[in-house]
Amino acid sequence: MPLRGTSRDGAPLSVLIVEDNPGDAELLRVLLDEAEEPTATGDDDEEDGDAPPPLQIAVRWVERLRDARAALADAPADVVLLDLSLPDARGLSTVAQMRAAAPTLPIVVLTGLDDEALAVRAMRAGAQDYLVKGTVTAPGLRRAVRHAVERQRLVDAAQRATAARDVVLGVVAHDLRNPLSTIKMCAAALGAAPEPAQAAELSGVVRNAADWMERIIRDLLDVTAIEAGRLTIDRAPLDPAAVIARAREQFAPLAAERGLTLVADAAPDLPSLNADGERLLQALGNLLGNALKFTPRGGTVWLTATEAPRGVRFAVRDSGPGIAPEHLPHLFDRFWQARETRRAGAGLGLAIAQGIVQAHGGRISVQSSVGEGAEFDFTI
């Protein structure tokens, strides 16, 4: 029967056999080959319509653990069939050493002992399944390999979800603390019955802090929607020049406050777009906010819209310090910030801008050199 769907890119499933007995290794290879023989009925343990497509298997064989490490360094594998008794490793330490060498590699343990307690310990040590030599069948081997890969994928996904949750909790705990503290201090001052002018000033500070908290929460909700592919885009006919004008109106006061020149320009006779104006303004706002934040006083930020072969190209350019080459690949990662600018925000603005652009079918890019500013652009 065909071994079914584990490879993400359609390439053959790479199985590494680590077994010092040539006869046992050859038997495993034969069983895997047998599992690849097509049948008319398909796999009985797959539901109709839900079975992944048939998958070819590429098998490699090594006799020692050190050879396995070298083989994995040369080319990765999708799953390893690991004998617990090797010339250079024995027992559960074999699993531990393999796990240390390849932490995310699914492991199916092979042993001559039908020992349930050992099987449990092997699973706790990091194996995904346990097979007893002499009892392995082609369908059983197929299921063990497939399920090991799927279990490891679930483990990896759970670890990524846990890490993302911890980051979100950290952002909420840190970034909401400052505006919350401001609100508490103002509330205490208002409780002391200040003069009307001072009370009005304190009320304004409270409103600004509340707006700050609201922006953080909105960004967290937006990036969650983007990750889940549920970002709402309400398309309608849109004048690109109107978007540029609104962005300039919104950010001109901030530019003036920071001693910067904001130049906004839309080329004449731009074609109308079928796009979400509020979302595009949000994306441009995130780009402009970053440019204004990191450009030194006396600098300039340019916002432009020009005609492009497949629509309208929007660009935000600044005369700031530029971006180090090693930082460029990480700019659109959520929660990522360069060390020298850490805690300058939640680190979500560029990730959200990218999600908005991608939801419109576009692609955002950045060009920058240290000391020469940066330019972000996208075409809708």
UniProtKB/TrEMBL annotation:
Record region (Disordered): 33-53
Coiled-coil parts of chain: none
Domain Response regulatory: 14-148
Catalytically driven reaction(s): ATP + protein L-histidine = ADP + protein N-phospho-L-histidine
Keywords attached to this entry: Kinase, Phosphoprotein, Transferase
Comp. bias regions, Acidic residues: 33-50
Gene Ontology MF annotations: histidine phosphotransfer kinase activity; phosphorelay sensor kinase activity
Name used for this protein in its record: histidine kinase
